Amino acid sequence: MVYYYTSNVVSPSANVYVGRDKFENEELIKHGLEQDGMIYATPSLNDTNNLTSLKFHVDKLSSAHVYLRLHDGQTWDTIPAELLQDCAQLTKANSIEGNKKDNVTVIYTPWSNLKKDGSMAVGQVSFQQDKTVRRVYVSQRENAIVNRLNKTKVENFPDLKAEKDEVLRQIRKKDVAAQKERQKEEIRVAKQRKELAWQRDHAYDDLHSEDAVAASSNQNRDVDFEDDFM
Questions:
Q1: Please, what is the Cα angle at 195 between 193 and 200, to 5 degrees?
Q2: For residues 69 and 51, is the Cβ–Cβ distance under 8 A?
C-alpha cells in the first residue's frame, strides 16, 4: 500500500507519497522515476544547515520514505521553501522516534542518487554521492501542516512497475515526436538555404539572356536612332 498526499502550498499542487512499510519502501526504491525525490529525517540538536533531500527521510532515525514527484521543468534544487516544509513535516510525523523529538534534521536527495545493493536489508538504502544530499532543519512538529496534509491522504495499491513503464513509454513517445519535429525543421531550413543559394547564384541570369543582350545592342538599330538624343 502507498499513501498519497497533496500539497497545495504551490501551484500546480504537488504530489507526495509514502510507503506503508519497509517492503513497500523497497518497491518505491526499485521503481522510482528521475523526477522523484526521497526524504529522510534525523535528530540533530545543533545542526541547523538549511539543506534538503528529495527522497525525504529523518536523518539517523527510522522513518518512512517520503517521495516528492516533481513537475516537468522543475528541478530538485529549486523546490519552494513552503513545499520543502510540507515534505519535512510529513517525514517527521511518519517517524516513530522523530515525531517525538524537537530539532530534527530531514535529508532529501533525487531518486537517481539512491544506492541499493544486495548487502542491504529490505527497505534500506544509501546514496551514490553524499554531495547530492541536502538537509532541512525542523525545530518542532507543526500540527497545522501535518493535519492539512492528512486531510488529503489517499490509500492505494498501485502497480508501481506498470506505472513506471507507462511513464517511460510516454517519455519515449514525447522524445520521438520532438525528434521528428527537429528533423522536419532541419529539412525546412536546408531547403530554404538551398533556395536562397540558387537565387544568389542566378540573380543576374536575365541580364545575360539573348533578348536582354539584343535589346542593349546597337547592331540592329536604325541609323537615325541617335537623332532621338539630339
A1: 95
A2: no
